[in-house]
Amino acid sequence: MRWGKPDKAPERAKTTLIAKDIVTDPDALRWGTVSTIKAPVQQIARFIAYHLEAGAAQMDIFLDVPDAEIARQLAHPRVRFHQCDDAFWADKPDKARESHQLRQASNASQAYKASDLEWLAHIDVDEYILTDQPLAQHLAAVPADMAFARMQPVELMASGDPWTGPAYFKRTRKAVKAKTADLIDIYPTFGAYVPEGFISYTGGKNIVRTGFRRIRLGIHAMMQAGFKVSNGAMLETVHVGHAHAPDWDTFQRHFDFRMTHGSYRKKTNGNMILNDVLQVLIEEEGDSGLRRFYDEMCAATPERLGLLRKHDMLVTARLDLDEKVARIFGSQEPVK
Question: How does DSSP assign 135-176, residue by residue?
Fold first, then answer.
């Protein structure tokens, strides 16, 4: 069976934004994150600890399922928890809470409007900003006429313990200007059909300048009054490391939701895309087909790592999440 390529999405109307006053001193520059989260407390603790140690001056955490105990257990002066209960949504449009994507955008936009930081990143609980030097140094060097900076995506591969040992991430084909033939070399069965070699998003995430009016922060775009803001800089050595499916159990647990409402869902064009590939595997092979797909696309086998390294598509990092949790929250054991 052959799968076709998806049509290109239509272009949105665009605009540019120019900031009047910017901070160019890395020591004075303050950046932070905003996230809408539904996850176990340990995962949230790791996410918070990692980014506080990376230099985040403020983190806004919107708990999609309200939980006062999580907020109590992970209380920190640089973290603000927002409980997304009925009272929270009462003064917002009904549409704002219809899907998790709309809730994310609504919450991120609310945090943006209230922010007193210089820069704000809209990221998820399974994402980690990877950088070769303090992020503030990169942001201080972004040209004054750039309204946002783009962090390139890298996707975490499944290995023994990426949280405390080496974590292996793969880059997109476009990031290294590789060819589709290179993807087929790395992923012989599915490389021709999986965009960029990623099973999650390939567009990266933005960290945006604050202070502009009428801003809506989407998951991958910055909008002003319905127009997509287009003047952004690429941070070549800053990546957003996405732990989308760090193990087979996680892939299985989220699979049905992602097929219908998440990153594997059917898009508006009629061509065969990832959703179709996965659907065919389910119909023809069941779980064994999905496992075959997962092992080829996600497992950090020595052979796969070697092929990624050969094509300059491998990024290796150390997250050391539980050590960071112990330092931030004062516990020798991971938060439970």
Answer: HHHHHHTS-TT-SEEEEEEEEEPB-S-TTTSEEEEEE-TGGG
CA dihedral 189, 190, 196, 197 (to 10 degrees): -80
Q: Which residue carries 């997304």 as its tokens?
A: 84
Indicate the pLDDT class of residue 336, thresholds 50, 70 and 90: low
The string over 96-107, giving b where at least 16 C-beta atoms fall within 10 Å of a residue's C-beta and e elsewhere, is: ebeeeeebbbbb
Beta bridge partners of 155: 170, 242
Angle at the Cα of 33 from the Cα atoms of 258 and 315, rounded to 5 degrees = 65
State the pTM of this model.
0.91
Q: What whole-number percentage of the chain has pLDDT above 70?
A: 93
Q: How confident is the model at residue 235 (pLDDT cuts 50, 70, 90)?
A: very high
Q: Of 84-93, 146-155, 191-200, where does mean pLDDT reach its minimum?
A: 191-200
User: Which of 290, 304, 309, 276 has the alpha carbon at shortest distance from 188?
Assistant: 304
- Domain chopping of the chain, boundaries: 27-329
Report how far residue 187's alpha carbon sits from residue 253's, in angstroms, rounded to the nearest whole number: 24
**Long-range contacts for 288-292 (Cβ within 8 Å, ≥24 apart)?**
290/251, 290/252, 290/255, 291/248, 292/189
Between the CA atoms of 278, 284, 286 and 291, what dihedral angle is there, to the nearest 10 degrees? -60
Residue 74 and residue 3: Cα distance in Å, rounded? 46
What is the CATH number assigned to the segment(s) 27-329?
A: 3.90.550
What 8-state DSSP symbol labels residue 196? G
Q: Is 54 in a helix, a strand, or coil?
A: coil
